[in-house]
From TrEMBL:
Localization per record: Secreted
Any one cellular-component term (Gene Ontology): extracellular space
Active site: 262
Keyword Protease (UniProt): yes
Span of domain Peptidase M14: 6-297
Protein name: Putative carboxypeptidase
Organism of origin: Corethrella appendiculata
GO biological process, one term: proteolysis
Transmembrane annotation, as ranges: none
Main location: secreted
Keyword Ribonucleoprotein: no
Family: Belongs to the peptidase M14 family.
Keywords per UniProt: Carboxypeptidase, Disulfide bond, Hydrolase, Metal-binding, Metalloprotease, Protease, Secreted, Signal, Zinc
Cofactor: Zn(2+)
Full-protein positions shown: 112 to 412 of 438
Length: 301
């Protein structure tokens, strides 16, 4: 099972997903988003409270070492099912959620067993391993902020969707076409809410709406514990980077509201090792922020 006083292993997260299905058989369905190089499933849950709701896609852990991402995604899934606040309930039950806490299971497992700071997939490329699964999506693939060296942490792969993880997960997302209006990818770290594009400085068609939604979500987040986030399009807010899931979701899957959270901390050399005592506060502030993001998205989207 899972708790939020420590970081959970892949096996713990997967068995917790099974527990959810058993505990909430009418609301939670086990879904498989894709496959990995080492033969694992990219496991998720669909949480649905009634028929005909618009869909929200939530992805965490595409970068293996960013442990706060799967922890926050499981926290959010748990809140969606167990939060008893009446206002929260009457809001959250109007969406379907497709939730994938660990989008890079091979890499995540590797960070627990071999190398805490592994980022990529685990497919061998000569003497090096793995492509960056957030540079491998086939939308403006390999145009910016990505490496053609297999030993680099930002190796984009041999071509768009050369990685079975991104190829299969993208197929799954396309199978939901028309059902999803909000896509949220969780990463760490830097305390940012990002939106498309990463490949170019050109503003997305609904840039102003995305900025306004992100600003509202960041404001709400800060209200909890004073944690300050910066909001912007990837290219301007951080660095050029193409081939990310969020940009593909926006540009190819035509999901109009597409965001990436870079969670706590704000900086530091050991930013991937967020102390365990910060998991719950991060979950609380991020859950509140996501609700605001959805609420604003409904007004503007
Ligand atoms: O570089 C990345 O993939 C993300 N930062 S991280 O430190 N977690 O690696 C930024 C992702 C946002 N980029 C795009 N959507 N292009
Ligand atoms: Zn990341």
């Amino acid at each position: 099972t899972v708790d939020w006083t420590h970081y959970n292993t892949l096996e713990e997260i997967n068995s917790w997903l099974d527990d959810l299905v058993k505990k909430y058989p009418n609301k939670v369905e086990s879904v498989v988003g894709g496959k990995t190089y080492e033969g694992r499933e990219i496991r998720g849950v669909k949480i649905s409270f009634k028929k005909g709701n618009p869909g929200v896609f939530i992805e965490g852990g595409i970068h293996a070492r960013e442990w706060i991402a799967p922890a926050t995604v499981t926290y959010i899934a748990n809140e969606l099912l167990t939060n008893t606040d009446e206002k929260v309930r009457s809001f959250v039950e109007n969406y379907d959620y497709y939730i994938f806490p660990v989008a890079n299971p091979d890499g995540y497992k590797y960070t627990f067993e071999k190398d805490r700071f592994w980022r990529k997939t685990r497919k061998p490329y000569g003497k090096c391993f793995g492509a960056d699964p957030n540079r491998n999506w086939d939308f403006h693939w390999h145009e910016a902020g990505t490496s053609s060296s297999a030993c680099s942490d930002t190796y984009g792969g041999e071509k768009g969707f050369s990685e079975i993880e991104t190829a299969t997960l993208s197929e799954y997302i396309l199978s939901l076409k028309g059902k999803i209006h909000t896509y949220i990818a969780f990463h760490s770290f830097s305390q940012l809410i990002l939106f498309p594009y990463g490949h170019s400085a050109t503003h997305a068609p609904n840039h102003n709406d995305l900025q306004a939604i992100g600003d509202a979500a960041a404001k709400r987040l800060a209200e909890k514990y004073g944690t300050r986030y910066t909001v912007g399009n990837v290219y301007d807010a951080i660095y050029p980077a193409s081939g990310a899931s969020m940009d593909w979701a926006y540009g190819v899957a035509e999901i109009p509201l597409s965001f990436t959270y870079e969670l706590r901390p704000n900086g530091g050399f050991d930013g991937f090792e967020l102390p365990e005592k910060e998991i719950i506060p991060t979950g609380e502030e991020t859950f509140a922020s996501v609700l605001t993001l959805l609420e604003e998205g409904k007004k503007l989207g």
